[in-house]
Write a structure and sequence with these properties.
The longest helix has 25 residues, at 78-102. The chain has helices at residues 2-16, 25-43, 53-72, 78-102, 106-129. It has 132 residues and is mainly alpha-helical. It contains five helices and no strands.
């Protein structure tokens, strides 16, 4: 039985003592940065007219810069690279939505707002009719 757990213990020990393991900032910084990805994904459900272009430019730029940096540092940090690819991706998606909104005519914008108001009213009516 002890022989079977020795490889698992050595793998756990190797993971814990790795230069980018959980005892270092190289492990925890990317873990917490996934919160930015979650916020960026949530922003994709916001109306395009409410998107902050400067905020998403900053997210995109930092995501791209840190992807490059994560391959230059020692130890190379693939976890940091992957999270920053997603940070940049959500920023780019939001920037596109903001750009697409800004190029719409005022009539198209009014139509989108009217449809959104109708959808909200229908949802509210449905919720009122549904028993709790």
């Amino acid at each position: 039985m002890a022989a079977a757990t020795a490889p698992a213990a050595s793998k756990l020990s190797a993971f814990m003592n790795h230069p980018a393991g959980p005892k270092t900032v190289f492990f925890w910084a990317p873990m917490f940065k996934w919160g930015l990805v979650a916020a960026g994904l949530k922003d994709l459900s916001r109306p395009a007219e409410n998107i902050s272009i400067p905020q998403n430019l900053a997210l995109t730029a930092t995501g791209l810069i840190w992807v490059r940096y994560s391959f230059v540092i020692i130890p190379v940090n693939y976890s940091l690279a992957s999270v920053n690819v997603f940070v940049a991706g959500t920023g780019i998606a939001s920037l596109y939505r903001g750009w697409d909104w800004s190029r719409k005519s005022e009539a198209e914008k009014a139509e989108v707002r009217a449809q959104r108001a109708l959808d909200a009213a229908a949802e509210k009516a449905t919720a009122a009719l549904t028993p709790a």
